[in-house]
Design brief:
CATH topology of the domain at 503-598: Immunoglobulin-like
Helix content: 25-40%
Oligomer: single chain
CATH architecture of the domain at 503-598: Sandwich
Strand content: 15-25%
Number of strands: 31
Shape: elongated
Distance between the termini: 64 Å
CATH class of the domain at 503-598: Mainly Beta
Length: 600
Amino acid sequence: MRRRRSIGAEVVDGGVSFRVWAPAHEKVAVVIDDRDYPLDREPNGYFSGLVKSAKAGTRYKFRLERDAFPDPASRFQPEGPHGPSYVVDPTAFRWTAKPPDVRRRVIYEMHIGTFTREGTFVAAIEHLAELAEIGINVLEVMPINEFAGRFGWGYDGVDLWAPFHVYGEPDDFRRFVDAAHARGLAVILDVVYNHLGPDGNYLTQFTPSYFTSKYPNDWGESVNFDDVDAHGVREFFAENAAYWIDEFHLDGLRLDATQSIIDLSGAHVTRQITDRARAAAGHREIFIVAENEPQDARLITEYGVDAMWNDDWHHSSFVALTGRIEAYYTDYRGRPQEFVSMARHGFLFQGQRYTWQKNPRGTPSHDIAPEHFVCFIENHDQVANTADGSRLPASGRKRAMTALVLLQPQTPMLFQGQEFGSTAPFLYFADHDPELARLVREGRREFMKQFPSIDVSKLAAPELEATFAMCKLDHNARDEEIVELHRSLLALRNESPFCDARRVEGAVLGEHCFLLRWLAPDDRLLIVNLGDALHFEPASEPLLAPPRGADGWRLLWTSDGSQRFDEWRIPAEAAIVLRPRDDSRDSRSNTRTSAVYSIA
């Protein structure tokens, strides 16, 4: 009897194999249709057994002494986290597409519940072709694990192996992944291994060893990765990572808030998780990205993670676009040197004092290649951490910043709707019972008090269905000009050497203006001006000089619709891309040709 994964219910020859870790108990039984099937006790607290009458679709619980509880590794909870678990046979699904081989990643963060009006996996499939056509090639799906209530962000999941039943059945998620692969889109899943939600979490019924009071945690109890019985806890999470890669053909994972995955054992559990996920992928290459507030680069250099979110980049861009210097934006000015430094060295803070936290922030990352840093103008947290969950308004500055994030050598990420100029807000929403809802609402208001510009008394109530409904995208409200902005930039990214960071240099040209230069053999010049129009005369910055043999520069792309490039007049609040003028046609005219991309 061979199992795919070490825990949970699996369809095998002769019935269903059940295996669960419950070291706090002497006896465990599977309950099916009010009948108990005792399991055999193994070493290290595991219980296992074969139930011949069970099959795919069987509903069950585990009895621990008197009471019965859902399977900690349940593959589906059709009645929610408090109901029975459901046996799933992943081999019954027929895959039709191979996972794509994605190299130059362009990530798109999406929330299944608000990506469409229906809020389901199947409904989301209808819009995948639109994303692929623009040039996006990686979907980063916010957590889909089962949680209590009708709606939420997913970060308070309690059944980490079970897709949220409101979004659809497990095979519906497989259909979503298969459809994405057919369109050349890879899919990575946001997973939460630093805490579990407060409602429907039954892990401690099986053993209190799942959690520890040794370490603080902003969201509840910390997971026990390095104390008594930690071996079973580590196995649970490492196997979960492998499960998503194996049974759903996922192309990677995004690890949430890894600063709260605390492990002082000497063999960090993150390494175990990443190794297990890659082993499950077999010959396929997967992509693992981590969020880490203190910006600990060991995740990349030691723990097997491929990339990290660069919050420094977001914070600088936010200040540059809004002028708001408050709360965790206190140490950023949005100045040109910040963007030049991050293009070349990764994080902005690599151990310097961070006045907002009154401590050093970050670790050295200047020797890590730029593609290992994920940069973004918007994401779910940062849009929600505004007074009304509003998007940054369209402007010349935002178009210029969009050019920077999509053309610089780091890995870019867009947040759902950003690619077509959605004005739908993204607020914090969570459906809870009245008392828990009150605590969550008060906690959210307390968190938002760090922003003096926000009147917390006017924040939308997270538990209201109206709050959730406001956040749903309207795909009919596409601003085609903004769509074309993203399409043209991503086409340019693919056709030109912008992903090649080996010869990137940068320079500050003015108070709000800077350049990035990709040097030979295929020179490109990106100038970003977030301020007033400029005229460089003399143009004394050496990076403005054309390469040997070229007769000046030719306009390749502009964010403001300009049809000419007049050396060196830089439009206000605009970005321009130049290439060497190297043929007789270019030398005769600077006017726009069919090779020039522009957006008015």
